[in-house]
TrEMBL record:
Coiled coil: none annotated. It holds the Pfam family FCD. Residues 2-69 form the HTH gntR-type domain. The lineage of its organism: Bacteria, Bacillati, Actinomycetota, Actinomycetes, Kitasatosporales. GO terms for molecular function: DNA binding; DNA-binding transcription factor activity. InterPro entries: GntR_C (IPR011711), TF_FadR/GntR_C (IPR008920), Tscrpt_reg_HTH_GntR (IPR000524), WH-like_DNA-bd_sf (IPR036388), WH_DNA-bd_sf (IPR036390). This is GntR family transcriptional regulator.
């Protein structure tokens, strides 16, 4: 059975911290408690967990503030993603790539065009990459990568807003990754992953 703290933690991480419009916002424990039907104690416990992950900042007499993504953090996020995703691509080539699942996720992304679908588009974007990482079969690495999710989604949505046409570019970049993996071409997969992450980083830092 899910505890109140776990419920609050999941809600904050999935629905609040992934929203780029809420960067720098101070969170109201009472408002969150009322929304989730909980007391303030599990809300406070969840915020302490998030503070330990540097996702919120606890400010005396003001409460928990959503920590904005800095240029350095964005750069480090993309570097870490590159290390993990290149490793995953090499592990699943040849013959271990979940091609049907990756193709289905890419098709889902294609159906989510427009700014009104930005957050859902990026959530599926994360699933596309996470599916490749999970297929590598390293449980600890997969768990660590999943811990990047809220930062990835927040950064990804910002990138879509920063550059007109970024959604279509992401689809093209994902298609290149999928084709390289399907062809069992490790070098092409590494190149496609690097290109995708480097472009995303440039868009984010330029915004």
């Amino acid at each position: 059975m899910t505890s109140g703290r776990e419920k609050a933690y999941a809600y904050l991480k999935e629905n609040v911290l992934t929203d780029p419009d809420r960067q720098d916002e101070f969170l109201s424990e009472q408002e969150l408690a009322d929304r989730l039907g909980l007391s303030r104690t599990p809300i406070r416990e969840a915020l302490l967990l998030l503070a330990a992950e540097d996702l919120v900042r606890l400010v005396p007499r003001r409460g928990a503030q959503i920590v904005p993504l800095s240029g350095r953090e964005i750069t480090e996020l993309m570097e870490l993603r590159g290390i993990v995703e290149r490793y995953a691509a090499e592990r699943i080539i040849p013959g271990r790539a979940p091609l049907a699942e990756l193709t289905e996720l890419l098709d889902r992304q294609r159906a989510l065009s427009g700014p009104e679908h930005a957050k859902e588009f990026i959530a599926v974007d994360h699933l596309f990459h996470a599916t490749m990482v999970a297929a590598a079969g390293n449980t600890l690495l997969n768990r660590h990568y999943d811990g990047l999710r809220s930062r990835q989604i927040r950064a990804g949505v910002v990138a879509l807003y920063n550059q007109h046409g970024r959604q279509q570019a992401v689809l093209t970049e994902h298609q290149a990754i999928l084709e390289a993996v399907a062809a069992d071409d490790r070098q092409a997969a590494r190149t496609a992953i690097d290109g995708h992450l480097e472009t995303t980083l440039k868009v984010l830092l330029a915004g």
